[in-house]
Amino acid sequence: MTSRATPPAVVHEYPLPVDTSRVCDLPMHERPRELAERVGMENVSDQVLIALILRSGIHGRSVLRIAQDLILHYGSLPALSLASVDELAQFKGLGQVRAQVLKAALEIGTRIRDEENAPKKRMTAPADVAEAIRPLLRGREGETFWLLILDAKNGLKQRPREITRGILDASLVHPREVFREAIRTSASSVIVAHNHPSGDPAPSREDLRITRNLIECGKIIDIKLLDHIILGCDPERDSYSFVSLREDGLVTF
Length: 253
Description:
By secondary structure, this protein is an alpha+beta fold. It folds into 2 domains: 23-117, DNA polymerase, domain 1; 126-244, Cytidine Deaminase, domain 2 (3-Layer(aba) Sandwich), CATH 3.40.140. It has 9 helices and 5 strands; from the N terminus they run αααααααββαβαββ. It has helices at 32-39, 46-54, 63-74, 77-81, 85-89, 96-117, 126-133, 175-184, 205-221; strands at residues 144-150, 161-165, 189-196, 224-234, 239-244. It starts with 31 loop residues before the first helix and ends in a 9-residue tail after the last strand.
C-alpha cells in the first residue's frame, strides 16, 4: 500500500497594517484632526478617535499605529474601556499619563451610556421635584436656580441643570438662559426650582414675578413651564421643606 504524503499546512499570512511613522507625512485630509473636522467627529473610525485623545505618537510609532494596535489588541472600544490604567500604561506607546487620559475619556463615554440607559425619573408631583433637588442642596450658602427638562411623559431627560447662583432677580434668571437647553434638547416641558438658604420656602414677590415671566416666555416658544418649586433647607437638622407655586395656586400656570 502506497502511503500518501501529508500535504503541507496552509499558512495564512496577514500583512501588518501599513504604518506611517509620522502623522505629518500623511496627506492633509487624512490626518486625524483635519479628517474629523471635514467629515464630523461622529463619522470617523475608532482608531481616529483614540488618536485624537492620545494626540501624538512616539519615536518610530505614529499615534495612528498606537491607536490601531489598541483596537486590534482589545477588539472593541467596550473591551478597551474595561482595561485598568495600570494595564494600559504597559501598552507600548502609552505610559502612565497617557493611559490616564485615555481611561478618563473612555469612562466619560461609559457614564454617558449608563445615564442614557437608566430609567428616567418621572416628575409627577412636587415632592418628586423636591427629592431630585434635595441632594444638590448640601453646602449651598446662597440661592441657586435649577432647570428640570422633561419629556412627553414628564420623565427627567437629564440631571437638574444649574442656571444661576445668587439672590434671584430678573437679571439673573433670564428666560434665554432657562429655555436655551430646553430648546436644544427638544423638551416637552420644564420645571424650575430654587432654594431659600434661610430655611423658609415662602415665595417672595420677585419669585412670583420671575415665574410669571417664564410662563409667558414658555408659551411663546411652546415649551410649557409646569411648576416652580421653592425649597427651604435646615442644615442643622438635615431637613427641608418646599412650596409648589402651582399646587398652592400662587401663580396661574
